[in-house]
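Teaching assistant's notes for section 4

Start the section by putting this record on the projector. Ask students to predict, before seeing the second block, whether TRAP transporter fused permease subunit will look compact or extended. Collect guesses on the board.
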Amino acid sequence: MNFQVHNVTAAARDGRSWLRAAIYLFGVALTLFTIYYAYAVPIERTRYSNIFLGIGLALFYLLEVQKRYDPDGADDPVEETDIPDRPGFGSVTGRASAFAALTGSYRRLKRGVGTIDPVVALLFAFASLAATGYVEYHFQHLQYDAQLYGFSTADHIVGLTIIVLVTDATRRAFGNLITSVVVLAVAYAFVGPWLPGIFQHTGMSWEEAARHGAIGLTGTYGFILAIGSTWVAIFIMFAGMAKAFGALEYVLDIGREMGTSLHTGVVQIAVIASMIMGSITGSAAANTATTGSFTIPMIKEQGIREDFAAAIEAVASSGGQMLPPVMGVAAFLMADIIGVPYVMIIQAGIIPAALFYFSVGVAVYLITVKFGWTTDETTSFNWRVFLKGLHFVIPLAVLLYTLIVLRFTPLAAGMYTIFTMVPVIYLRNLYVDGISVGTLVDTTVDTFDGLRQGAVEMAPLVGILGSLGVILVFVTQTGLSQQISLQMVALAGGVLILLLLMAMIASILFGLGMPTPAAYILVVMLVVPGVTSMGIPDITAHMFVFYFAMLSAITPPVAVAVAIGSSIAGASFLKSCVQALRIGAPGFLIPFAFIANNSLIYWSFPETVIAFPLVLLGTASLVVATVGYDGVNELGYGHRAFYMALTFGALFGPLVVQAGAGALILLSAFLANTDRLPAIVDPAQN
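Reveal the predicted structure now:
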């Protein structure tokens, strides 16, 4: 019996070793293949996307096996030991409870619906390689001959297999909601003849569905997968390598140091760290889980209430997707859909991002001061902390230079950034740790770990990129998107504000529980054509719906970022949602502000120079109204209504009204800070 147990244990250990080795091999291979394609472009993009899809899906299913069969080897966003154990930065109990909440909520988010049987996952991994291998082997036939002479039964079966694989991978990575949209899109292609009104169409056979959905090199193989496997992948892989080289720890170290030197304490760490990490990850939920595991215990230790701690982190994490130069998956898709260089999307996103994070910073400051959650235990900022990660500035400078000055594609810019970062890390380690074989070996191991980590972080996105292509092709091929756009314009009756309100509602509803890229694509198909038909410029219209799709992460009843934040904080979900809406309130008006002030998106002189500070004052006024505090006095409803009126004047009024509202906002701030505005409520009562 002992011999049998020993054999079983040894076999299981060998199986885990083989599994880890396979994941490592697939991960490194996928990243190197992406970098090689960026460097040489040896094959056309659709063919590359197919190979990327096969390796990425296989890697994803191997990771699913690891979660079930080898949980100790699975990748979690953080380790418990990584949560700081310093005075004022979270107690041991707080760290443990935060970590438990984090891993529970984040694993549920990542794993979708339950866990997959290892045998089934391995079969799906093999099927992914086999199906995409079939497409690669018959690529010339599928691209040319089959388009003229027809597809074979085998072609159609492989096409359906690919649709099933990307749909299943989406379900396991992102849950049932977005998967149900994929299933409904496929079903809609079949049942169109029996539907009423605008939903009726001629219908498709299963062969047509397989052709449009995948095997005709459309649908799954459309522009979404093409952009995702190139522009998006190179940046996510760069982020994975940067994390392996210590970039995340560097950002958090700066945040902690700032927390010890600010009157408001560590509360600003959430805003800064989440702003930076959100730009890299492009996911509000993952950002909340990762940075929130560090920041929320710190914030609570300062005495800030649980619901506020959760709300601050959730709002700050949600906005990271709009922060240039890397603005998440949706921004890359936006550039390709509109057909403009990505640098134009960067330019369009700078001022809205500044407005959003300025308002969040002001809200966090006012809330902290209002409730007396400040700290007197401040120390001078240790500028030597910056020196620890100064080497990261070099690849970042290369990224900015290649994207903005040279105007390279994101794929080329990401490639040159990686090519810069790796030798910089080698030189830095040789300088700091000394020139030795051991230093070279350790740095090489870190490099390959980074190659693997980048692919591991990309793998869950591969399925949803293919699924979004499936949704897009069926919604457009059946004519549904055009019909809905026409109906929205008709319902609005030519009134722009009504159409914008409908677009806002649709963006938020589509975004509830969905990743921002999925929500953005759905809204772009169904809503944006109607908005642009009323004279709104393309980038402005796309940025408008992108913002609201992003803000759905803090909008009840789903509010996925708030759900994860409240789980980590041990706070009430509903109370956290209320506070998140108060802190993030300007985000719901900023999109309307850049519709009214188009120079915030398309820069021009002197319009942008005039509009930006006035709208900035308007967002600050809105924060004062929603928080009910001006920095000195608590405000009654009369004063709050006054600030709200000034907000609308500064954001949406004609230039004369904007200037007057801005002047009154500055005058009110001056009077408040000279104690000439009487207190409405005693702050001690709260």
